[in-house]
Amino acid sequence: MMKVPVKNLDNEQVREVELAEAVFAYPYKEHLIHEVVRAVQAAQRSGSHKVKTRAEVSGSGRKLWRQKGTGRARVGDIRNPKWRKGGIVHGPQPRSHATRISAREKRNALKSALSQKVADERLLILEDFELDSHKTAALIKALGGLGIDGKALLVDTLDNSNLGLASRNNPKVKAVDALGVNVYDVVDRPFVVMSSGALERLTEVLSK
């Protein structure tokens, strides 16, 4: 049985909550996490790299000089890849860098990453994320009172407008919905701060 304290924004413990061992005591699988993080980063690439082939560069298709009798090497048009400003051979073309990762692999990698946060005591559960203000300074002050002074992932609901507004101006904190948590965000940030409501929703999804 795994129990962790549930605190309020004043860093006062209000109760304890039991964590599902199937989710938060999952074995640490570094290779699986690595593969899923690579897949997330690959999917974020635009893939818009592009060079022009000899069919696309500007220039006439006229043969520059006759084939024989000049003493020079035979040559075709000026768009030849051997010439300056000619086309590029086998250059990059627009494509998707996304790789296939199954839903089961994503789910297991997330459970593994969250379990490691629990083992490192870097997962904090709050009774709620009800902020009095949408000001970024107020949020940072509250997190500082919880002992968080670095990067943190804040997990609640999309309906919490104050949290969304307060977190978007500081690159060290990121607020996401409980169903929008991914492995990259968890491993990229030392702390994960989660409301009790978000914990229930996330546990329900990952327990399937």
Reconstruct the topology from this structure.
Layout: E1 2-7, E2 13-19, H1 21-24, H2 30-44, H3 103-119, E3 123-126, H4 136-145, E4 152-156, H5 161-167, E5 173-177, H6 183-188, E6 191-195, H7 196-206
Parallel strand pairs: 1-3, 3-6, 4-5, 4-6
Antiparallel strand pairs: 1-2
Structural description of this entry:
The protein is an alpha/beta fold. It has two domains: 152 residues, Ribosomal Protein L4, Chain: A, CATH 3.40.1370; 41 residues, no CATH class. The protein contains seven helices and six strands, in the order E-E-H-H-H-E-H-E-H-E-H-E-H. The protein has a six-stranded mixed sheet with strand order 2-1-3-6-4-5, sandwiched between helices. Helix 5 links the parallel strand 4 and strand 5. Helix 4 crosses helix 5. The mean pLDDT is 92.
Count of strand segments: 6
What is the string of helix and strand elements? EEHHHEHEHEHEH
Which structural class matches the secondary elements?
Answer: alpha/beta
- Estimate the mean pLDDT confidence: 92
Low-confidence stretches: none
Intertermini distance: 19 Å
Counted up, domains total 2
Rg calculated over all Cα atoms: 27 Å
How would you describe the shape? Answer: elongated
Percentage of residues in helical conformation: 25-40%
SS summary, helix count: 7
Which CATH class of the largest domain applies here?
Answer: Alpha Beta
What's the CATH topology name of the largest domain? Ribosomal Protein L4, Chain: A
Percent of sequence in beta strands: 15-25%
Main sheet makeup: 6 strands, mixed
